[in-house]
Amino acid sequence: MDIRQLFSGEHKGQKVTVRGWVRTFRANRFIALNDGSCLANLQCVVDFEQTPEEVLAEINTGAALEISGTLVESQGKGQQFEIQADSVTVLGGSNPDEYPIQPKKHSLEFLREKAHLRVRTNTFAAVMRVRAALSFAVHQYFTKNGFYQVHTPIITGSDAEGAGEMFRVTTLDPSQKTDETDFFGKETNLTVSGQLEAETYAMGLGKVYTFGPTFRAENSNTSRHLAEFWMIEPEVAFNDLDDNMDLAEDFIKAVLTYVLENCEEDLTFLDQRFAQEEAKKPQLERSPMGLLERLRFVTQNEFMRVSYTEAIDILRNSKPNKKKKFKYPIDAWGVDLQSEHERYLVEKHFTSPVILFDYPAEIKAFYMRMNDDGKTVRAMDVLFPGVGEMVGGSQREERLDKLVERMRAMDIDEEELWWYTDLRRFGTAVHAGFGLGFERLVLYTTGMSNIRDVIPYPRTPLNAAF
User: Fold this and answer.
1) Residue 330 and residue 312: Cα distance in Å, rounded?
2) Secondary structure class of 185 (helix, strand, coil)
3) 10 Å Cβ neighbour count for 304?
4) What confidence score (pLDDT) does residue 294 get?
5) What letter would DSSP give residue 463?
6) Helix-then-strand count for the chain, H and E
7) pLDDT band at 342 (very low <50, low <70, confident <90, very high)
8) Using the 8-state DSSP alphabet, how is residue 176 labeled?
9) What pTM was estimated for this model as a whole?
10) Which one, of 384, 394, 402, lies nearest residue 441 by Cα?
């Protein structure tokens, strides 16, 4: 029986057994036990006079215990129920001089070095429970809406983004010249996206989605980048850009609503933590909303839809703040927007989530459908408060001649993607999809400030520990 179940009170007065890890042990009598099922610890009251001294000596922070006793209403403050322990068994001891997660405040940087143990803290336990709930909500949404999950390749010979920031996969010794054939008979890499393969299955199953690991060899050590991360990528046949925007809005609202309804305790704790962290920042750098407030901001507001060109005009005529201007001025049509521009549109101008669409072709990928103006493509980005871009997607180019033209202009290997162009030769149709970095979603939902703190074991430049 887990601790979360006991807090319902249904087992009051009954004999129960719980297992968990010691958070604190005080006065040789009160054990704060946590099993990871919820944020709150369960107080277990030990009769130290009837408990062997050798057992009491092993009840240290971090030790794993099995405790049996009667669940009763607590006489002390801070908890509704407690266990009057009849027996305490030490399942696994913990040396108090060596255990690093002591009952005190630790920096996030320190806890990253102890990533195998950091989930035993309140913050990381809450984050990982919310992450698990979001993952479930993703699968639940797509299953309910008739999508089929597709497991796209992790090892690939194509670069979906055309940026070349990929990890090579090889059995050959890179330090030696050899005529030996590589394992796959060609150069292969870890995938940066399952989108292209998902498109092929959408054109046979109608509605599909991927939810898998992706990899990017971008030498970026920022708080928003990982070398290994998880991507959610739905693809739908016969959908155009308007349908795609509808899907993105409905999907995001559904998964965030799920966690708001099912992770109340953890989100309340993270909301309080978020407020404390924001209070440490200079006034101008603080979030305009609390954590729970910005989640409801997304779920309760209609997403404003604005073209890139309209957004550029708004930004050119804007006054972001009386005390400072944009760090990156908007000086020409065609520039890629920065986070400060995206946040201004969401937080100041429209005060709602925003979907920007019809971007300049020059700053977007080869597979996006060209508009009739010959300058813009049917791309879209969904913008959130506090973070800017959350989702990127597009209507895909279904016309063979236009796709090949773009591939040649962007130096994309046609022979490598022969199977992708085949989709335009055999039963081509309008289709669309988007990509959502799962860690970006977890980051937004939990209010953490660094993406390395929302994935169990972060992979970043010069770091592949654990």
Assistant:
1) 7
2) coil
3) 16
4) 95
5) B
6) 13, 16
7) very high
8) S
9) 0.95
10) 384
The secondary structure of 71-112 as a DSSP string is: EEE-SSSS-SEEEEEEEEEEEE---TTT-S--SS---HHHHH
Q: What is the residue whose two structure tokens read 């405790």?
A: 67
Banded model confidence at residue 322, pLDDT cuts 50, 70, 90: low
Across the range 125-144, mean pLDDT stands at 98
Phi, psi of 69 (to 5 degrees): 175, -165
CA pair distance 360, 376, nearest whole angstrom: 4
Here the contacts of 333-342 (C-beta below 8 Å, separation 24 or greater) are 333/309, 333/360, 334/360, 334/362, 334/363, 335/363, 336/363, 337/311, 338/388, 339/387, 339/388, 339/389, 340/388, 341/311, 341/315, 341/388, 342/381, 342/383, 342/388, 342/389
Instruction: Identify the CA nearest to 278 among candidates 301, 294, 262.
Output: 294
CB atoms within 10 A of CB 264: 11
Question: How many whole angstroms separate alpha carbon 271 and alpha carbon 285?
Answer: 17
Q: What does the alpha-carbon distance between residue 208 and residue 149 come to, in Å, rounded to a whole number? A: 6
> DSSP assignment of 250-265, as one string?
HHHHHHHHHHHHH-HH
Q: Which residues, in sequence order, are CB contacts of 99 under 8 Å at separation 6+?
A: 60, 61, 62
List residues bridging with 355 in a β-sheet.
Answer: 305, 382
In the chain the domains, ranked by start, together with CATH numbers, are: 3-103 (2.40.50.140), 119-453 (3.30.930.10)
b or e along 57-77 (b: 16 or more beta carbons within 10 Å of the residue's beta carbon)?
Answer: ebbbbbbbbebebebeeeeee
* Segment 117-124 mean pLDDT: 97
pLDDT of residue 161: 66
Q: Which two tokens stand for residue 377?
A: 């493509």
Per the CB < 8 A criterion, the answer to whether 397 and 451 are in contact is no
Q: 181-194, pLDDT tens digit by residue?
A: 889 988 899 999 99
C-alpha distances (whole Å) from 331 to each of 191, 306, 364, 380 are: 35, 19, 19, 22
Within 8 A by CB and 6+ apart from 207, the residues are 145, 146, 147, 148, 234, 235, 236, 237
Q: How far apart are CA 305 and CA 308, in angstroms?
A: 10
* Percent of all residues in the chain with a pLDDT value above 90, rounded to a whole number: 83
Sheet of strand 431-437: strand arrangement? 148-149, 207-215, 228-237, 431-437, 388-395, 376-384, 354-360, 304-307
The DSSP letter of residue 411 is: T
Give me the mean pLDDT over the 46-72 stretch. Answer: 95
Structure tokens belonging to residue 449: 């400030």
Q: Is 233 exposed, middle or buried (0-12, 13-18, 19+ CB in 10 A)?
A: buried
Tabulate helix, strand, coil % of the chain (nearest 5).
35, 25, 40
